[in-house]
Amino acid sequence: MVVESDIFKVMHQRRSIRKFTSKNISKEDFEKILKAGFRAPFAAQLCSLVYTSDKEKMKEIKGIGIYPTTKILMFFLVDLDRMEKIMKLRGHEYNTDDMMTLWLGIQDVTLVIENVILAADALGMGSVLLGVAPQRADILSEVFNIPKRVFPVVGLCLGYPDPNEETEIRPRYPLKHSAFEDSYRELDEAELKECMKEMDEGYITQGYYIKNKAKIPLPEGQKDDIDYDKYSWSEHISRKMIKWPGKREPLIDIIRRHGFRIE
Ligand SMILES: Cc1cc2nc3c(=O)[nH]c(=O)nc-3n(C[C@H](O)[C@H](O)[C@H](O)COP(=O)(O)O)c2cc1C
Predict the structure, then answer these.
(1) How far apart are CA 200 and CA 196, in angstroms?
(2) Strands of 47-52's sheet, edge to edge?
(3) Co-location of 123 and 187 in the same domain
(4) Structural domain count, the chain
(5) Which domain holds residue 157?
(6) In degrees, to the nearest 5, what angle opens at C-alpha 238 toward C-alphas 233 and 244?
(7) What are 64-93's pLDDT values in tens digits?
(8) Are 149 and 187 members of one domain?
(9) Share of the chain above pLDDT 70, in %
(10) Whose CA is nearest to atom 8 of ligand 1?
């Protein structure tokens, strides 16, 4: 029986793990994790997942950033196909707004994922999410035989953390700037700077970007005068946001190609 303090300990000690040992995950433990995952609340049980421990299969999935020591690779899916088929069996025709159902599906999926992550941590494992999965829906559909109207939301690399790999608890915005009682509050400049300071100083202290040489180059023609001693989370996330548009196929086109009718 897990007691409350254990749950909090797991939540507060969790951090993304990107390097795993050679220890295999037992079938029993993996099933335990999956069962805990699907105990999450649901709007309409629109979450399915595919997984593999086959290294060859993992290699086929290019461009997602799968960590090479991953023991089990999972992809969490919004599954409208199963829902529609159940509706048909009940004599109903699906005619709802696909955008709304996709949204519900993402809500369902997200809750399952967090349960899976915490359950894995509670069993001494670690994980890291892979956010590029939606952009790679074509290859994922091919490799895992995913039909139309089933769409990947995110991937997860799972395994036992390599003890030789340093991992740190990453900072978060101050709670008072994220949780508002009674009324949403737009942050003023000083408060925004407090958010940035908390994150940036935390990441710089941990040396995250310099260690990983993870600086994102600025678009062509823009002068980059931020060195690693100043390059931190708020700059990094901003560069991610400016880098993406135009460089990738719009997600809406990919979602439509996978059978969703979104106007
Ligand atoms: C939706 C989502 C997608 C993510 N995608 C990636 C990814 O592709 N590669 C990666 O190394 N980390 C990825 N992460 C992990 C985040 O970088 C990480 O959670 C964040 O930096 C906070 O660190 P922590 O998880 O150690 O607290 C992702 C996290 C989320 C929530």
Answers:
(1) 6
(2) 47-52, 72-79, 150-159, 126-130
(3) no
(4) 2
(5) 4-165
(6) 125
(7) 999 999 999 999 999 999 999 999 999 999
(8) no
(9) 97
(10) 130
